[in-house]
Amino acid sequence: MKQRIIMMLTMLGWLATGSHAAITITAIYTDNGDEVRKTESFEAEAPLQTRFEAEVTEIEAGWTLEWRFTHEGAGGGSSVTRYEESPEYTFVDAGKTDVKVYACLNNEHVDSATISVTIYDSILEMPNAFTPNGDGANDTYSAKKNHRSIVEFHAYIFNRWGQKLYEWTDVNGEWDGTYNGHPVKDGVYFVLVNARGADGKEYKIRRDVNLIRRYNEFNDGTGGGDQ
After folding, report:
1. Are 35 and 115 in contact (CB under 8 A)?
2. 21 falls in which pLDDT band (50, 70, 90)?
3. Can you tell me the mean pLDDT for 121-126?
4. What does each C-alpha distance from 68 to 39, 109, 176 come to in angstroms?
5. What is the pLDDT of residue 36?
6. Under a CB-based contact definition with an 8 Å cutoff, are residues 104 and 65 in contact?
7. Which of 67, 145, 173, 180 has its CA 20 to 30 Å from the CA of residue 127?
């Protein structure tokens, strides 16, 4: 009986002094120039630069925040702890990362909330032709539009004599079919791409590129190449 009384008194004391908080996490990033705000778990492609905010209510003054970023992927797990009020974090690895924030009071975790960010596996393909004739269709040479989660990229265009005509390092970049500001001749060129995906996949792409300006004179105008 004495033990039961002691246990009940202990529990009542904990309830009287215990604290809790209501926490909402918001992940903020930019997609095609537009600001996106997420309050629930989501999927995206890398690299993804994100800022996190936490709205904390129902807690007495003096609280601080502790953030933990725990990653699970094919290459193993990792964990990072941050103490900023609104930390920034760049996701570059495929897989799921749990972002957990603790509301802390008197150096103790009072309550927590979690949001998960899943980064897609990578995709990268390059087409074999383009038609820079100014008709607005297939006028530039670039990675196929289905690319995703490419964190490193470097592409080069060469002519048949091995002369470098152009290079770019943005996976969304493109070649307009010119060299030193002048259009190059129709013909076969060569693309070399070295890239890496968020999943660690290495891409070494080498292929011919057919530049065909007069394509629409012999076709119905739907564009060329295996775009």
Report:
1. no
2. confident
3. 97
4. 17, 13, 45
5. 97
6. yes
7. 180
Beta strands in the chain (DSSP E): 22-31, 34-38, 42-44, 48-57, 64-73, 76-82, 88-91, 95-105, 108-119, 129-130, 150-158, 164-168, 178-179, 182-183, 187-197, 202-211
Single-letter amino acid code for the residue at 126: M
> 52: which 2 tokens?
């996190």
pLDDT at 19: 62
3-state SS of 73-133 is ECCEEEEEEECCCCCEEEECCCEEEEEEEEEEECCEEEEEEEEEEEECCCECCCCCEECCC
Return the bridge partners of 206, or none: 192
Q: What is the pLDDT of residue 215?
A: 60
Q: Report the residue count for the chain.
A: 227
Mean pLDDT for the chain? 87
What is the phi/psi pair of residue 46, to 5°?
-90, 160
The reported pLDDT for the residue numbered 224 is: 43
**Residues in Cβ contact with 196 at an 8 Å cutoff, skipping those fewer than 6 apart:** 122, 150, 151, 152, 202, 203
Using CA atoms, how far apart are residues 125 and 105, in angstroms rounded to an integer?
51
Predicted pLDDT at 12:
37
Instruction: Evaluate if residue 155 carries a pLDDT over 80.
Output: yes
Task: Note whether 156 and 191 are within 8 A (CB).
Answer: yes
Residues 6+ apart with CB under 8 A from 131: 137, 138, 139, 211, 212, 213, 215, 216, 223, 224, 225
